[in-house]
Amino acid sequence: MTDILRVEDLKKSYDGFVAVNGVSFSVAKGELKALIGPNGAGKSTCFNMLTGQLRPTKGDVWFDGEKITGRKPREIWRKGVGRTFQITGTYQSMTVIENVQMALMSHHHKLFSFGPRAWKLYREEAFEFLDTVDLADQADRPCSVLAYGDLKRLELAIALTHRPRLLLMDEPTAGMAPTARVALMQLVADIVRDQGVSVLFTEHDMDVVFAHAHHIMVLNRGELIADGDANAVRNNPRVQEVYLGGGTLFKEAADA
Amino acid sequence: MAFLFAQFLTGLANASSLFLVASGLSLIFGVTRIVNFAHGSFYMLGAFVGVTLMEILPGAVGFWGAILLTGLIVGLFGAIVEMVVLRPIYRAPELFQLVATFGVILVIQDLALMIWGAEDRMGPRAPGLRGVWRIFDEPVPKYDIVIIAITPFILFALWYLITRTRVGILVRAATQDREMVGALGVNQAWLFTGVFALGSALAGWGGALQLPKGGADLLMDFNIIGSVFVVVVIGGMGSLPGAFIAAVLISVLNVLGVTYLPQSTLVLMFVVMAVVLIIRPYGLLGREEVAGEHGQVGAPEAPIRPYGPVGRSLVAALLLVLAVVPFFADRFLMTLLIDMIVFALFAASLHFILGTGGLVSFGHAAFFGGGAYAAALLVFHTGTPMELAFLFAPLAAGLLALGIGWFCIRLTGVYFAMLTLAFSQLVWSLAFQWRSVTRGDDGLVNIWPAPWLNGPVPYYYFTLILGVGGILFLRHVIHSPFGYALRAGRDSPRQAEAMGIDVKRVQYVAFALAGVMAGLAGGIFVFSKGSVFPTELEIGASFDALIVVFLGGVKTLAGGVVGAGFMTVVEDWLTRLEYWRLLLGLVIIAVVIIAPEGIVGSLQTLWRRIRNTGDEEIAR
Fold it and tell me: Does residue B242 fall inside a structural domain?
């Protein structure tokens, strides 16, 4: 059993509209896999079903051999699945480091602790995570004044606190400057390599996808139309059809 | 059977006014997302304006003309209120609007007192409909029958307006997405004003239509608001047919209750509501929706830290002053300080759940009064020693909070607020109507502390230690991991759930803790006064605490305490004036619009500006 995540015939429909239609795939241990597709293809819906924000209409999700279909987000998190969101949801009233400390308090089962001062707890540990994403110098700034790209990195640090075995990242580089995108994905790739974390991410920036992903899946109108390495996906006629005019983009990416 | 049918008809007739008022509230909420607590005041205004007009205008034409005119006048008044008070604060959190509409309640109360005097007015009989018709040999007032006949037409007219006309489409579109409607070139401001005017007019009509059955008095506003909220909650917020069904249900139940269970009419209503909400959390015809899409006012809350050396010394100095007060102060000052500390603890407990937890509870008095009653009942009926009875106050309040919280925590935003309000009304109605146990209006008296505490000085120290201890404990909790988890759930529930935090469970525990602390305040209160009356459980008591928290500043930890101190002094001074409600109401409205950050918040902003530090400085 080398698959950390296995998805079988996953389906989500809303009053007759099918957002995700019978998607099956798997993510291997230590793999960095991308899920791409045009807007509205069902990427975020798919993610939300994997981490429990949405309940699938049909189908099942296995994490490390255990069925997690329909479990609550917090239960899935406790099992070792990390998640970042397309639109960041950090705690605005806390400092940068407190956001990380909060996750650590949850990880160490300290949520119903009334005694200690929270801002002193796990501060060293939180610093290390901030250091990983290069945010240590901003640790004591209020989260509300952070630049968008920094928020994205903070989210990544938060997602790493419970040492997840699988990390799901929904458009991790959206809204970032091109150089910052590459840097962030390089960071993710390093984490995958060093810590053995498996990562599944969605992305619109093909440079990022083709530069880093080991395997790529393409979702279109709720259906998986390709699943393979960069070359296979690039040469897939259905993918080229979906990304009309995007063919040049792929070629550039291939040349790069 | 015939008697039952006649009763049913009376219920239907009573439902008419209730439906009119509730539909107005529902309509206003649906479009503006504002819970208009002043809606009962518009109803009262309708009754008074109606009485006056009916005295001037003669005959049947005059009677019905007066009713019609009343609606227009109240509607106009509502439009003015909307433009002056609410228009500046649409984007603010719901608490701001609540406080503002509560200011409007106070203003209208005193205006009505000024214009119409304190005496109750009998409503005139409807010309030509004075007698009764016999239905199955049972007498049914003619006016009831006419009202029953009219109401469905009103429902139909409203339904037609909302679902079939262009205006209705715009209104419904605005309910879904205000900004989009604005972007499509519709003048939202006027749409909102129009809807608010219509809603107010409906309340005014409700007030005028019930005149021949009831009358006009100065307590109408608060008397109806509980029922109206129950109706709107049961029917589903924003649903007109839902409001109608619920109004009929509640009214018929009330009439039957008066006949068969005269002791429990008020309680019955809330029991029905609880049952409906267990089965359908968003009401009979309500749809689940994401409530509380309100924005922020001012900057986001700054990260919190325990006080630094300066803050600690200031608090220590204040405590030292409070500790030596009995050596030079007179009895009056000590009583005032006891009131202040009790209120500060009560407000701090509300601030805990509201500010830190982000749960706007409109019924926090249930726990304060509940604690007070729990202790008082023990002393009164069983002669329990004071020390034991006193311990029972926070305990009972905590259990009550666990019970109420079980229903309420599932909901968010305005729905949570309405439900807490309704439950606090349930507790109030128990205290008010269960006369054999609570002695109702007469209250429970002779609830004095144990001999070793009996006297201003010992009781002052008792209050100081427990009150300050309670407040410091709450502050400690806010800085603990639990407090952080609570804030995490407030800042971003999705993120919190996605990092393993059971947000609802954290909120539930926090709600219970706030209840315990409010109960502690209630326990101190009851033994300081020696008595407790149902007024401590009224909506007004909950609102007082909300206003205090608001005045102090929601986003600051000291807000509740400072606001309570300020309010106790101001009220003590203001209530000596004849029209103090008017003044207080105007002050509240002014604060909402001009200084929305509250006293502490505004001072902090000022302080930062003086020291010229950036926003990034963490307030220590």
Answer: no
Range(s) of chain A covered by CATH 3.40.50.300: 3-90+164-255
* DSSP classification of residue B287: -
Do B8 and B140 fall within a single domain? yes
The secondary structure element, H or E, covering residue B122 is strand B121-122
Would you call B474 an interface residue with chain A, using a CB distance cutoff of 8 Å?
no
Number of separate domains in chain B = 2
Q: Are strands B138-141 and B215-216 parallel, antiparallel or unpaired?
A: unpaired
**Could you tell me which residues are beta bridge partners of residue A166?**
A81, A198
**Most A-contacting residue of B307, B499, B504 (CB-CB within 10 A), to test interface:** B499
β partners of residue B140: B133
* Chain A residues 141-180 with CB within 8 Å of chain B: 141-145, 158, 161-162
Taking CA B312 as the corner, what is the angle to CA B306 and CA B318, rounded to the nearest 5 degrees? Answer: 130
- What is the 3 state secondary structure string of B347-380? HHHHHHHHHHCCCCCCCCHHHHHHHHHHHHHHHH
Assigned CATH for A3-90+164-255: 3.40.50.300
Flag if A113 and B482 touch (Cβ within 8 Å). yes
Is the Cβ–Cβ distance between B552 and B566 less than 8 Å?
A: yes
Give yes or no: residues B214 and B330 share one domain: no
ipTM: 0.89
The CATH number of residue B331's host domain is 1.10.3470
Same domain, B214 and B342: no
Q: Which helix (H) or strand (E) holds B31?
A: helix B2-32
Q: Which two tokens stand for residue A238?
A: 């259905």
| Residue whose C-alpha is closest to residue B363's, from B375, B353, B373 | B353
Tens digits of pLDDT across chain A (256 residues): 478 999 999 999 888 888 888 889 999 988 999 998 888 888 889 989 999 888 999 899 999 989 989 899 999 999 999 988 888 788 988 999 999 999 999 999 988 989 888 888 999 999 999 998 888 999 899 988 888 888 888 999 999 998 999 999 988 888 788 888 888 888 888 888 888 899 999 988 888 888 888 899 998 888 888 888 888 888 888 888 777 554 444 444 444 4
* Residue A162 exposure: Cα atoms within 13 Å on the Cβ side: 27
Q: Whats the size of chain A, residue-wise?
A: 256
Task: Report the gap between the CA of B510 and the closest CA in chain A (Å).
Answer: 10
Burial degree of B24 (CB within 10 A; 0-12, 13-18, 19+) = buried
B538 burial type by CB count under 10 A (0-12 exposed, 13-18 middle, 19+ buried) = buried
**Buried/exposed code over A49-67 (b: 16+ C-beta within 10 A; e: otherwise):** bbbbbbebeebebbbbeee
Q: How many CB atoms lie within 10 A of CB B210?
A: 26
Cβ–Cβ under 8 Å, residues B97 and B34: yes
pLDDT digits (tens, 9 = 90+) for B378-396: 988 888 888 889 999 999 9
Cβ B233 vs Cβ B362: under 8 Å = no
* Nearest of A237, A232, A198 to residue A217 by alpha carbon: A232
B447 close to B379: Cβ distance less than 8 angstroms: yes
A137 near B CB under 8 A:
no
Residue A172 CA to residue A192 CA, distance in Å, equals 15
Q: Which of A95, A101, A108, A144 is best to mutate for the B interface (most B CBs within 10 A)?
A: A144
**Separation between Cα atoms, residue A56 and residue A42, nearest integer Å:** 13
Does B502 sit within 8 Å of A90, measured CB to CB? no
Q: How many angstroms separate the CA of residue A253 from the nearest CA in chain B?
A: 34
Write phi, then psi, for B343 (nearest 5 degrees): -65, -35
Length of chain B: 620
Q: What is the DSSP letter of A57?
A: S
Q: B321 is in which domain, residue-wise?
A: 309-611
Which residues of chain A lie closer than 8 angstroms to B497, CB-CB? Answer: 72-74
